[in-house]
């Protein structure tokens, strides 16, 4: 039987484990976006570093087009609509943590833009399953990826290279 005062730590450990599993597998909103993109025939790398020597991972990476997509959790990244709801709990810690996340996000955006990438940030509430915005976001992403896709080399030179 754990001491009573330890229980909040146990529960935050469970939260931490769940969050870290979600980072590996993708959150439900991210998976909803991925299914919508797949349905449009778009392919990507998931949870990959767009720029090898920049140690930042994007949720979806469209390599040849240099488009990096981040599906930001409303709470952890400070969504204006949902980010503040839970701040009253542990208020001494969360706003600071979220401010650091946001700083890091801006840092990542700047570094990727400097390396020639288009950075797209989407709030998870925008792509939660069944959201009307989901389909239009997927279409906009498809357009951006296609617009930035490098032209294919002519057939003859592809054969020579292969
Ligand atoms: Zn939100």
Task: Based on the model shown, name its key terms.
4-stranded mixed β-sheet, binds zinc ion, alpha+beta, 6 helices, 162 residues, 4 strands, 49% helix, disordered N terminus, Endonuclease, Chain A
Basic shape: globular
Number of domains: 1
| Range of strand content | 5-15%
Q: How many E-type strands?
A: 4
Give the mean pLDDT: 82
Helix content: 40-55%
Mind describing the biggest β-sheet? Answer: 4 strands, mixed
CATH class: Alpha Beta
Q: At the third CATH level, what is the topology name?
A: Endonuclease, Chain A
Rg, nearest Å: 19 Å
CATH architecture grouping:
3-Layer(aba) Sandwich
Characterization of this structure:
The protein is α+β, with helices and mostly antiparallel strands and 162 residues long. It has one domain: VSR Endonuclease (Endonuclease, Chain A). Helices cover 49% and strands 13% of the residues. It contains six helices and four strands. It has helices at residues 7-25, 28-39, 94-114, 124-127, 132-148, 155-161, and strands at residues 45-48, 58-62, 67-72, 118-123. Strands 1-2-3-4 form a four-stranded mixed beta sheet, sandwiched between helices. Helix 2 packs across helix 5 (132-148). The radius of gyration is 19 Å and the shape is globular. The chain starts with 6 loop residues before the first helix and ends with a helix. The model is unreliable at 2-10 (pLDDT under 50). Zinc ion binds at residues 74, 79, 81-82, 123, 125.
């Amino acid at each position: 039987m754990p001491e009573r005062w330890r229980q909040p730590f146990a529960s935050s450990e469970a939260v931490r484990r769940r969050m870290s599993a979600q980072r590996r597998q993708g959150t439900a909103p991210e998976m909803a976006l991925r299914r919508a993109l797949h349905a449009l025939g778009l392919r990507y790398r998931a949870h990959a570093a767009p720029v090898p020597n920049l140690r930042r991972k994007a949720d979806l990476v469209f390599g040849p087009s240099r488009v990096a997509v981040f599906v930001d959790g409303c709470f952890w990244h400070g969504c204006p609509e949902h980010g503040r709801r839970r701040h009253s709990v542990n208020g001494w810690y969360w706003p600071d943590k979220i401010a650091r996340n946001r700083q890091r996000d801006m840092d990542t955006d700047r570094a990727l833009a400097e390396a020639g990438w288009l950075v797209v940030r989407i709030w998870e509430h925008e792509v939660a399953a069944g959201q009307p915005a989901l389909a239009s976001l997927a279409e906009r992403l498809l357009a951006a990826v296609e617009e930035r896709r490098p032209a294919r080399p002519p057939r003859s030179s592809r054969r020579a290279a292969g």
